[in-house]
Design goal:
elongated; 3 strands; mainly alpha; binds zinc ion; 2 domains; single chain; 7 helices
Length: 226
């Protein structure tokens, strides 16, 4: 464990109030044989505590994640995820098609541990430039984030690079957080009733994709009506 202390002449009981700096002493992954480090902070104990927590968190992530597991290719992980996916046949067919046409040429041959946020952002931007629909782009994002989230759950990655990535067009990342509470307060005009009529049915067993797909459909329908 990281240790938080002060190297001052004051008694420990006075540390909370005295004007001297906090020090965090910690070891990196590797236990007792690894080198000991120290980091000094100001008088803000909170900062020192946050740092100590982060050190412990990172250490744990590295201890539990097998570095070799990160060498699995994205395309292999994606195929496994799709094979095990319990969705409607039509949505699985859509995932395969987006995977083959767009995702695989960009990151399919990369080890999952080498995929960076920039790679995913570049792929989204490329799809946007090609004029692909927001729901198609959202679908690509969904597949990538589901595959990488699964890798995190399987302890193949410490964390997913696919978080809070901005999606272009009308469908923004915020729209992908479901389920929809109801019609929006304004700006939807005459289409309000269409939106609520087409409210998504969220199935419990399919947490990876259900909040996305119905919204994509709502969006497509909404656009056709314009
Ligand atoms: Zn002191």
């Amino acid at each position: 464990m990281a240790r938080i202390f002060k190297r001052c002449p004051c008694p420990e009981e006075a540390w909370k109030a005295c004007p001297h700096q906090w020090v965090v002493r910690y070891r990196t992954a590797g236990g007792r044989s690894s080198r000991q480090h120290e980091q000094s902070f100001g008088t803000d104990l909170r900062e020192a505590e946050d740092f100590a927590l982060k050190v412990e968190h990172d250490k744990r992530a590295h201890v539990f994640v097998d570095p070799k597991a990160g060498q699995a290719l994205f395309r292999v992980e994606a195929a496994t995820w799709l094979d095990h996916h319990l969705g409607a046949d039509s949505s699985i067919a859509t995932y395969w098609s987006v995977l083959r046409a767009h995702i695989d040429p960009a990151i399919g041959g990369k080890p999952i541990g080498a995929i960076r946020r920039e790679d995913i952002k570049a792929l989204i931007a490329t799809m946007h430039r090609k004029g692909l629909s927001a729901s198609r782009i959202g679908c690509a994002h969904l597949v990538i984030s589901a595959v990488l989230a699964e890798a995190v759950r399987d302890k193949k990655l410490p964390e997913s690079p696919c978080s809070s990535i901005q999606l272009p067009g009308v469908v923004t990342a915020a729209d992908f957080v479901g389920p929809v509470p109801g019609p929006r307060p304004s700006t939807n005009g005459p289409h309000d009733h269409q939106r609520s009529a087409a409210k998504p049915q969220v199935k419990g067993h399919d947490e990876d994709m259900e909040p996305y797909k119905p919204l994509g459909r709502v969006f497509e329908r909404h656009r056709l009506l314009r």
